Amino acid sequence: MKSAFVSDVQEIRRRAREHVERGAVTEGYRADRQTVIKLLNEALATEIVCTLRYKRHYFMAKGIHAEPVANEFQQHAIEEQGHADEIAQRITQLGGEPNLNPEGLLTRSHAEYVEGDSLVEMIREDLIAERIAIDTYAEMIRYFGDDDPTSRRMMEGILAKEEEHADELANLLTTLDPTKG
């Protein structure tokens, strides 16, 4: 049987007035804020690299199957940019600064920027990047745990979308290269 929820509202009110400049980061925040900001900046770099790669693939898609695949690339680029914006916003909520400096972007990113020479190679490289994001984001989610539930929930939402992207790309790969199915 669960015990009754009891909270000292007067104490919560007192603490809320202390360090008001910290915004959303209250005394109840238990994660190592600097580590979380570092991890989120790595995820931000990953999303930017993925956005750029998808944009390139959108413009470079050629061949009889290019139009529907290019449209998929474009949609993924838009969604990855949305993820980047969401992550950058969370970084600022935690009192950090989103690292949008292009210098070092690839070294901060978990994913690589591989162009691919054919439609099948482009799909394969995008699928590999999605699989990297799935593994690293799942690891971040475990790290955040109950210490930063807001970042955890945000990354869980992004992870679900990355899994959807991977499934779509795997289906495209199987359709265009049946030997890989």
Characteristics:
mainly alpha, 6 helices, elongated
Please characterize this protein's 3D structure.
This protein is mainly α and 181 residues long. The protein has 6 helices and no strands. It has helices at 9-17, 33-60, 66-93, 105-108, 119-144, 149-176. Helix 2 (33-60) runs antiparallel to helix 3 (66-93), helix 2 packs antiparallel against helix 5 (119-144) and helix 5 runs antiparallel to helix 6 (149-176). The longest helix is centred in the N-terminal third of the chain and has 28 residues, at 33-60. The radius of gyration is 20 Å and the shape is elongated. The model has no long low-confidence stretch (mean pLDDT 91).
Brief account:
The protein has 181 residues and is mainly alpha-helical. Helix content is 68%, strand content 0%.
Q: Roughly what percent helix? A: 55-70%
As a percent range, the share of strand residues is under 5%
Tell me the series of helices and strands, N- to C-terminal.
HHHHHH
User: Mean pLDDT score, rounded?
Assistant: 91
The total of helices stands at 6
Largest sheet composition = none
Number of strands: 0
Whole-Å distance between the termini? 50 Å
What shape does the CA trace take? elongated
Low-confidence stretches: none
* Rg from alpha-carbon coordinates: 20 Å
Structural class of the secondary elements? mainly alpha
Topology:
Elements: H1 9-17, H2 33-60, H3 66-93, H4 105-108, H5 119-144, H6 149-176
